[in-house]
Amino acid sequence: MSMDPNQGQQRRGIGGGGIRWWVLLLFAGYAGYYWLSNRSTDPLTGETVMIDKNISPDDEKALGLQAWQELLTTEHPLPPSDPNAQAIRGIAQRLIAKIPEVSDALAAEHNLQAQHIEKSFDWEVNVLQSDQVNAFCLPGGKMAVYTGLIPVAQNNDAMAIVMGHEITHALLRHGAQRMTEQKLAQIGQMAGAMSGMDQSQMQAVMSVYGYGRALPYARKQESQADEMGLMLAAAACFNPEEAIPLWQRMDASSGGNAPPEFASTHPNPGTRIQNLQALMPKAMEYRKRFCETAK
Fold first, then answer.
1. Considering the entire predicted model, what is its pTM?
2. Is 19 within the bounds of a domain?
């Protein structure tokens, strides 16, 4: 009896030995539904964002508080009497005071209303003893500045720009957006595993996802935080023009060892400086509009 030599290969492709495309189609349908049903418009940026409706600002705040408490078991804050701690807390107070006005102004640019999630924040700012050139603000308002950032910032204006950037990440709910993106990636990983993809195929797909979606998405968040953070600093009477030399110093402090932009979660310093320069007229307008001492 004759047999088609390709018959076995065709059967393996349809059965357990090859990729089960119907599984991928089912997961693609679910991923599409998840993506569409969790989209909303961020009033502060006017951008369509994806935040899982099961993740509330209170959920984020609880996660932020848990991370904060864990951090303080290993990190060592400077005492409140320390001059650097006092200066940085003063900067934070000025920035926080301007959040309602700046949020309303940014939302009005898109004919939307700000949600003012900052009203539920329990603000706390610590300066942590570390050589890291870094700062962060967790959802819910817990914020830290590492002492390694102080000599790079050099002045209060530059420090305010960094802190405004970090505060903005919390205000724009970037943490919830990242958690939602991670869930979408997990759906993709489950689809690959259940469809019969081998390890090399899975790695190739996730690499495409990373370079094509995840990393550009992260860079977009950084640019959003740069913009609103600059407006916050300007509104709080800090000089937004200090953003340019700040990022020049940040680039120098990294020793030029940053990965290429396409492989990074952050824009490279050159791109960042170019974007900030383009935003400077708007920032100066916010300073004129909201800074009492500039009137």
1. 0.86
2. no
Using the predicted structure, report yes or no on whether residue 140 has a pLDDT greater than 60. Answer: yes
Residues in the chain, overall count: 295
Sheet holding 124-128, edge to edge: 124-128, 142-146, 135-137
Determine which helix (DSSP H) or strand (DSSP E) holds 200, and give its type and residue range.
Answer: helix 199-209
In a domain, 74, yes or no: yes
Whether 166 is a known active-site residue: answer yes
The DSSP-derived string for 15-47 is: STTS--HHHHHHHHHHHHHHHHHTEEE-TTT--
| Helix, strand and coil percent figures for the chain, each rounded to 5 | 65, 5, 25
Closest CA to 162 of 242, 65, 93, 82: 242
Domains in the chain, number = 1
- Using CA atoms, how far apart are residues 50 and 56, in angstroms rounded to an integer? 13
Q: Which domain holds residue 89?
A: 36-215
The per-residue pLDDT for range 199-234, each reduced to its tens digit, is: 787 777 767 766 677 788 889 999 999 999 999 999
265, part of any domain: no
In-domain check, residue 280: no
For residue 176, CA distances in Å to 17, 80, 225, 272 come to 38, 31, 15, 24
Q: Could you report the per-residue pLDDT of 18-35, keeping only the tens digit for each?
A: 777 887 788 778 888 888
Q: Single out the catalytic residue among 60, 118, 166, 222.
A: 166
Using alpha carbons, select from 243, 244, 234 the residue that is nearest to residue 288: 234
